[in-house]
């Protein structure tokens, strides 16, 4: 299938698909005219990429661990290896720290608003 067809099937823009290719996440075949030619397995691969992005993982991390992604009846899951677990734990710590910062900022904003 062509990039426009994959974009339509997955709900991901052609621009994003080209970005995934640039990052080594998708490796489409090329036809004799040089057009990208995607397979049905690329639909699953894009779903795996999207799930990992929505969980806060960057493309460099996804590239390292995309082969750990599994699709099944209950959606996408990851096989946990120690390195991936460490990456996820690190991301969770950063998110928790950011939430604390945001709560503190929100509190200061409320105090400032109520003082006026």
From TrEMBL:
InterPro entries, per the entry: DNA-bd_dom_put_sf (IPR009061), MerR-type_HTH_dom (IPR000551), MerR_fam (IPR047057)
SUPFAM superfamilies associated with the record: Putative DNA-binding domain
Presence of keyword RNA-binding: no
Record's keyword terms, sorted: DNA-binding, Repressor, Transcription, Transcription regulation
Keyword Repressor: yes
PROSITE patterns, per the entry: HTH_MERR_1, HTH_MERR_2
All copies of domain HTH merR-type, residue ranges: 1-68
PANTHER family in the cross-refs: MERR-FAMILY TRANSCRIPTIONAL REGULATOR, REDOX-CYCLING DRUG-SENSING TRANSCRIPTIONAL ACTIVATOR SOXR
Protein name per UniProt: MerR family transcriptional regulator
The species this protein was found in: Streptomyces coerulescens
């Amino acid at each position: 299938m062509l990039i426009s067809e994959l974009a339509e099937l997955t709900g991901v823009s052609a621009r994003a698909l080209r970005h995934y290719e640039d990052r080594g996440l998708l490796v489409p075949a090329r036809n004799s005219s040089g057009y990208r030619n995607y397979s049905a397995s690329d639909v699953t691969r894009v779903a795996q990429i999207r799930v990992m992005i929505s969980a806060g993982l960057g493309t460099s991390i996804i590239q390292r661990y995309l082969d750990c992604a599994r699709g099944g009846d209950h959606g996408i899951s990851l096989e946990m290896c120690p390195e991936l677990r460490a990456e996820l734990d690190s991301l969770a710590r950063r998110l928790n720290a950011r939430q604390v910062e945001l709560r503190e900022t929100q509190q200061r904003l409320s105090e400032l608003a109520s003082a006026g």
